[in-house]
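Collaborator request, handled under Task 6.
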Amino acid sequence: MSGDVRITVTRALSKDQQARRERLIEAARDLAHEGGYPAVTMHDVADRAGVARATVYRYFATKDHLLTEVAAAWAHRVTAGIDGLAVGDTPVERLMGLLDRIVRVAAEERTLTSAIIQAVTADDPSVDDARTVLFLFVRDRLSAAIGGPVPEREEVEVVLGHILLAALVSLASLRRPVEEVAAIVRTSGRLVLTGALAAQAPA
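Structure tokens returned to the collaborator:
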């Protein structure tokens, strides 16, 4: 409706409210997995979660805001147990292992991936805070995979984050084959990290 302004208040949630919020995220994830971005409407999310439709707006300002929170839950799931996922003897091997896993899980859930990428990259101010939290979390997971000290670590993490985002866009929007995208992201990650590590080597 034109002129209909909705405000989502950020506050500490009770246990019941947190459970309701998580149920909404799960409902949105299931709808996105089944039908992609168009299948997720606030109306259908409310019905799937078994709550009043106005309730959705108490937690999420817009559909893109909600799907960005779905993306955050997805990122936590895919990178859970980072020590077991980032297998390898060197920072480069561990990083490449993590990047490869993320790409392959995204390819297995391509419809869901497409929906969350569309939301995360939306020109929607309500997404800004959730997107920042998501990107910082991904940077943290990349940092954990690398492990040891790296010169200009923050810049390296930012570049790796952009590489990963581009890889997911290639999968979800450009429909590139998973093996092609996985190879590109591994190569890009290796070049960035080996270049940074070379900067700390003795002359």
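The cover message to the collaborator said: "Residues 13 and 166 are 34 Å apart (CA to CA). The radius of gyration is 18 Å. Please let us know whether this matches your experimental observations."
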